[in-house]
Design a protein that fits this description.
By secondary structure, this protein is of the alpha+beta class. It has helices at 6-11, 42-57; strands at residues 14-19, 22-28, 64-73, 82-93, 96-104, 110-120. It has 2 helices and 6 strands.
Amino acid sequence: MEGADAAARGAGIRLLDIGPGRARVALTVAEQHLNGHGICHGGYLFLLADSAMAYGSNSHGVSAVASGADITFLRPAHLGDELVAEAVERALAGRSGLYDVTVRTGDGGVVAEFRGRTRTVPGLPGPTAG
């Protein structure tokens, strides 16, 4: 799936680690990620968290897509910050999944908390490895 995700790749998101129901991805905040206030745009933080959830939810070998998500921004991320988003599967029930993702800076400070919901979709091409 990693090689096929043009959105994450184009934003500079890197897959660090993946396992059953979990994943870690990283992003170094660059100038292209900054908003008008000079901090990382919330859309990129959402994309980072959503990408972690995508890798974690597709780690079971069945195609899964987001069905909804919420994010809480807790502190800003700045130019040069190395952000890591860690997704953890909280529940699977039939075709539905629930994931929590924490986005942290290199010093461990929490930038955002994300809760996402997924749904497996029969008929979609299966996830492919890196």
